[in-house]
Structures are given as structure tokens and as C-alpha cells.
Write a structure and sequence with these properties.
By secondary structure, this protein is of the alpha/beta class. The protein has 18 helices and 14 strands. The chain is 45% helix and 16% strand.
């Protein structure tokens, strides 16, 4: 009798072991840290995740969501402490640092094991030969213009050149009413304004801040852009608080009608409409230098996705990444977000259904995507260093050429390490 009980116990233990090994008993819980959910309509991302869970019984995904700046800080802390979530939303400006810290996984072996078709992906961001990020959705950064305010001050055509933009900003500005033509966020805490709101003027005219992989901030194109921004500040058309202003505060100014124009991501269109349904606005390409007739560089940022190096559930995390990059799901996401797809076969439906995004698609077709910070080492620090010098320039402590030279010197220290 004792022998029979022992055999039954052994069989039960073996069955449990086998079931655990196959994953049939143990559910897997993944955490996905990102800033996407707050920028999408309510429950939009959760609905996509719910469908993933339904198609993959035993895998659940918890969304850890927050604003962009908060998410960036949380991911940086997680990378430093080894507590990064299983799946992470990524910005191209972060991936070099995260890869150097060995915080994000090389997805190359996972693609190979799954026989994943790399050709279906618009881009695979690599660092030192390691495939660390897929851009799930790409958002261009055009100019947003308050059309009611433009009409009120007699602006009938969207500005196409820098001179036209300055003129429009001057017409929109009324300091007595706390209303300004443009807003410029140069917060050191969140220095993405250097990328989105400053150097975007360089890329728009087909120019570069680099030369053969080396910074070229002392080139004519960068200095001319700095000189232009300084001239706008001297004209009094930029909203106050430049040195401490974040991107979120910039958007709030536009939503509340305190600024007439801003450079911003298409990802905020739904947010702007939700916050102020009565605000009428249009978008246009970033103005270029007088006489430029070539293709316009279109600043962009991506909702990238990657996998933590420290996750204990790499295969399950890959299933989720592969799902998000699939043609049907990617088309669904970018249609909701009004973004350009990461899967080249995905067809967003917003191009014909929404005039604002139809216009963005026209701008995209006529130009090219440009963001030279993607994949650079310590990209966020580079932005912060440049922001310090621009602030000094706007404070009258140095000229545009001197600001460019100081930033060049600090950047070269990073590149020479």
C-alpha cells in the first residue's frame, strides 16, 4: 500500500514537472513600459493588448504608462538598476546608451529562431551590429498653426520660408495679451527641444549637423539656424520661459491659444483635439531658407520597441514584439495614432479620412525623414549640452557662432571617448 502511494506521488510530481516545463501550468506576466497609452484614445492600446492575450493564452501584459519624460527617466533608472520591464518603449535617442549598458536585448537571434521576415520592417535600429529596436510607429514633426488666430491677424497663406514664418509670428504676437507667435522648449530636464525645435530647422532645408559621422555644429547651416532663432527671440515673438519649458508645456500653450505656432509631433493631434475641441489648426512643413527648392527634411520620432536584456521571459516578450510589428496589428495601431507604420505592408486608414493627416502624408511624400540623433552615443546628453549653449546665446552671453563652437567642443569630448 505504501509502495502504491509512493508511485502515485512520484507520477504526480513528474506530471507537475512536465507541465511546468511546457508552460502549460505557469502563466507568464509581462510588463510593457511606454508613453504611448496617454497619447492614444482611451483604451486603444489596452484593446490591442487584450487581443494579443486572447491569441496567446497564458501570457498577460501589464501596461506601465506615463508621459514621455517620466517614461524616459523610469527606463534610465531601470537600466541602471537592472529592473527594466520585460518590454520597453524606446526612443531612437536612447538606444545607444541602453545598448552600451547591456540593458536591451539583441533581437537578431530571436528573429532568426522565428524565421522573421526582416524585409517587412521599415527600419531596424542597430548598435554595434545588435538589433535593439523596431520603430513601431513614426511621427513627423511639422508646424502646427492656429488658423483662427492666423485669420484674425490677416495671415492668409501658411509660411513656407523662414522670413514668412517670422513675419507671421510677429503678426500673432501681442505681449500685452500674453500671446506669442512661437514657443521654444529648452528645458535641461527634457532637452528634446534641441532636436525637435532647433535642429529641425537645419534638416528642413536639406542640411546636416554631421559630417562623415562627426559633429559639424560650426558649419554654416547650424550657425544660420541659431542666428535665425536668436532673431526671433530679439523680435519678441517667442513665448517667455524658454529655459525651463518642456514639450508638454509647449503643447499646453498651443492648446490654450497662448501661442500661434509650434513644432510638434502628429502624435499630439488627438490630445490637442480632446483638450480643446474648439481649436482650429492646420499643419505645414517646417519653413526653409530663402531660395531652397529641394526636398525638405521632415523631423520625426518613433515609438520604438525593444526587449529587456534581463527579462526572464524573452520568448514571450518576442511574441508580443512580433505581434506589434505584424501587418494587421501595425496598421491598426498607426491608424489610431495617426502615424506612419513600422511594417512596410501596413496601410493606415487616416490618409483619406482625416484632412490633417492627409496633409502630413503629402508633406511626407514630398520630403524625407530626418533625425540625426537616432543611434548617436549619449544623444540626450548631447541635446542637453547644446541646450545650455543656446540658452547662453539667448541670454546675450555669446553669439550664435560662439554657441555652436562651445557645443562642438563638448560634443567632440563625447565622440572621442
Amino acid at each position: 500500500m505504501k509502495l502504491q502511494k509512493t508511485m502515485v506521488a512520484l507520477k504526480s510530481a513528474t506530471a507537475i514537472t512536465l507541465l511546468s516545463a511546457t508552460g502549460a501550468m505557469a502563466d507568464v506576466s509581462l510588463e510593457f513600459t511606454q508613453w504611448w497609452e496617454p497619447e492614444l484614445p482611451e483604451n486603444a492600446l489596452r484593446s490591442i493588448v487584450d487581443d494579443f492575450e486572447a491569441a496567446n493564452p497564458g501570457i498577460t501584459v501589464t501596461l506601465n504608462s506615463g508621459p514621455y519624460a517620466t517614461t524616459r527617466d523610469q527606463i534610465a533608472i531601470g537600466a541602471a538598476t537592472g529592473t527594466l520591464s520585460d518590454i520597453v518603449g524606446l526612443d531612437g535617442a536612447w538606444v545607444n546608451d541602453l545598448s552600451k549598458q547591456n540593458a536591451i536585448a539583441d533581437m537578431g537571434p530571436l528573429m532568426d529562431a522565428a524565421e522573421f521576415d526582416r524585409d517587412q520592417v521599415a527600419d531596424i535600429i542597430q548598435v554595434d551590429g545588435r538589433s535593439v529596436m523596431f520603430p513601431v510607429a513614426s511621427f513627423v514633426y511639422p508646424i502646427f498653426i492656429n488658423t483662427d488666430l492666423a485669420a484674425e491677424v490677416g495671415i492668409t497663406e501658411m509660411p513656407s520660408t523662414r522670413a514668412e514664418f517670422l513675419e507671421a509670428a510677429q503678426k500673432m504676437t501681442n505681449a500685452d495679451e500674453n500671446r506669442y507667435g512661437w514657443t521654444l522648449p529648452l528645458s535641461l530636464q527634457s532637452p528634446s527641444g534641441v532636436q525637435n525645435d532647433v535642429l529641425s530647422w537645419v534638416w528642413a532645408s536639406g542640411e546636416s549637423m554631421m559630417d562623415g559621422g562627426t559633429p559639424n555644429l560650426e558649419g554654416e547651416a547650424v550657425i544660420a539656424a541659431l542666428d535665425y532663432i536668436k532673431s526671433m527671440d530679439e523680435a519678441g515673438v517667442i513665448a517667455p520661459g524658454i529655459s525651463s519649458k518642456t514639450e508638454q508645456e509647449k503643447v499646453e500653450e498651443f492648446v490654450n491659444g497662448r501661442v500661434g505656432m509650434m513644432v510638434d509631433t502628429l502624435a499630439h493631434v488627438n490630445l490637442i483635439r480632446d483638450r480643446n475641441p474648439d481649436l482650429n489648426f492646420e499643419i505645414t512643413a517646417i519653413p526653409v531658407v530663402e531660395g531652397y527648392e529641394g526636398a525638405r527634411g521632415l523631423p520625426y520620432a518613433s515609438w520604438g520597441i525593444g526587449i529587456s536584456e534581463s527579462t526572464e521571459h524573452r520568448d514571450e516578450a518576442w511574441k508580443f514584439v512580433e505581434y506589434m510589428m505584424s501587418e494587421e496589428v501595425n496598421a491598426r495601431l498607426v491608424s489610431i495614432a495617426n502615424a506612419f507604420p513600422g511594417n512596410v505592408n501596413a496601410k493606415p486608414d487616416f490618409v483619406t479620412s482625416d484632412p490633417a493627416f492627409g496633409k502630413a502624408f503629402e508633406i511626407f511624400q514630398e520630403g524625407y525623414l530626418a533625425n540625426e540623433f537616432t543611434g548617436l552615443p549619449v544623444a540626450v546628453d548631447l541635446m542637453r549640452q547644446f541646450s545650455v549653449e543656446i540658452q547662453k546665446m539667448l541670454d546675450g552671453q555669446q553669439s550664435p557662432a560662439e554657441a555652436a563652437a562651445a557645443a562642438q567642443a563638448s560634443w567632440m569630448q563625447e565622440f572621442e571617448q
